[in-house]
Amino acid sequence: MRTKIYLFILILCIGFNTNGQEIVSGYLHLENPKDWEQKVHLSEVQLNESNNSYTYTPIASSDISEKGYFAFDQKWFNTNDHIYKIHLNPIKKSKNQKLVKNSKLFILSKNDSIHFEKGNSLFANYSTNNSANKEWQQLKKFESKFESLHDNFDTEEYLLRTKGYIKDSLQILLVKLISIKKLDDKKLLEKDIKENTAYYNSLLKELKSSEIDPSLFIYLENKLSLIDKRITEKKYSLSMLLNGIAGFIIIALVLLIVRKQKRRKNTIHNSLSNQENTIKELIISGKSNKEIANELFISINTVKTHISNIYSKLNITSRKELLVKK
Question: Which domain holds residue 213?
Answer without folding.
Answer: 146-265
